[in-house]
Protein: endopeptidase La
Organism: Phoenix dactylifera
Amino acid sequence: MAESSSLHHQLAELFPGKIICLSGPPGVGKTSIGRSMARALNRRFYRFSVGGLADVAEIKGHRRTYVGAMPGKMVQCLKNVGTANPLVLIDEIDKLGKGHAGDPASALLELLDPEQNANFLDHFLDVPIDLSKVLFVCTANVVEMIPNPLLDRMEVIALAGYITDEKMHIARDYLEKTTREACGIKSEQVEVTDAALLALIENYCREAGVRNLQKQIEKIYRKIALQLVRQGVTNEQSLKVSLQQGAKQLREKSTEEPTQIADDGPGGKKLEDGNSHERATTTTLTESEQAIEVSLHEQPNGTATEESEATSHEHLVEQLEADKVQPTLLSSDGIATTDQPVDSKVNIKTSDVKDVKVDNVIEKVIVDVSNLADFVGKPVFHAERIYDQTPVGVVMGLAWTAMGGSTLYVETALVEQGEGKGALLLTGQLGDVMKESAQIAHTVARAILLQKEPDNPFFADSKLHLHVPAGATPKDGPSAGCTMITSMLSLAMKKHVKKELAMTGEVTLTGRILPIGGVKEKIIAARRSEVKTIIFPSANRRDFDELAANVKEGLEVHFVDDYNQIFELAFGSNSKPQI
């Protein structure tokens, strides 16, 4: 037992570092995963970006003969982390530059190759450095942009985009919490409903990652913070006005009734009028008002809190209770004293001040679908589904984009008919590959129609116009081949395709269906458009089986090898032609 444990420890120490490449769209958390890996492995973390890097000396260091010479990135890394086995994240490796100072991609070969980096030579130090224990993690958006010799040394892990449910959990559990703390807002002061969050994801943030979702949530909470601050300033001003009005009412009541003070006995002197007492009362109230004004103006504008406002209110009440005006009497020696009984008319009541109630409760801000546009503006995206039932000649396809996936319609219309006028016109800003797919689709559709309806000369005598909305968006790729064939056959036979159907797949001239990429992204787009039935090539079955159960839930997926299978699924035996 002890021998096996020591052997395992020895093997673990001799285990070489691996080069992992995390590829995926922006905002899916590639850099965060690298940082989490370092924390889980208890290794020091170091990150540097090579995007736009065009100088080999940044990696291998400058020779000491140059002015301002510095060691390379790896020597700086080992100097900072202080260990021989850190986790080094090389960011944006697919955006390497190439200039007159050499090819950084070729320099990275020595750095990343496990067979060579045991004796990595930095030009500045000119001493071999052992990098075999370093765990390298690279990130890239497009793997095809990485040079093949460099890509051959990596283990690529593809990170797909997040579905709506995953985005909801990320927003609730992390994005919303961190944004609220950054803005200084308490959880009981704001509520973002699930319906508003779902509308935010579907109508504003359809990209594969969550970076744009984080921006929109931050925008919402910044505006909520501004509302709360404005409410707080208004409450502070209303408190000041109420307190000042209470003091003014006290002063008016005390000056309206001059006090007549009776004879104080044998040794006392009778005041003929209340002028002396009125002056004393006015002086006492004036001092109280000044104290109140000072306490009010000591609060800085815009920084009022509930505690400070409540304290100022209590201070006013205590001040007025302490300053209850006692009747001022003159003793036999002419010195003013307040030791005598108080006439009931001169008791100043502070109930008016105590009854001053200031509504200092800040209303809870609720963000719902109805007021979501007030925080983030008008929706950026609209419903991708244009037709409830697609017309004749229109079929829904599935496409992969940098946003993660989308549905698109392929529309075919008849331009003119006449003997020998068979032709095909293409629009929709299609790329070269997609134009070739349309030509292949036209040929295959003509052959299939000849099999199904030998007496129908539609393609030979009809000029067709095939369009793929939206016209301003560039489109390319071979995966729309089967969709184009179905669109042309729908127009030729005047039959609707099955409702809530979408398809994708490349087609050969013989009608074989070839595999495509971006299965998860296309399924996400289909679910967003409420598609129930999807047609995939049979070779993509393994990609579909690897998906989570919540992604595949509620979908009827068919895998086909030949277009004749798609024909039966799209039109069926009970489909009647439109008259």
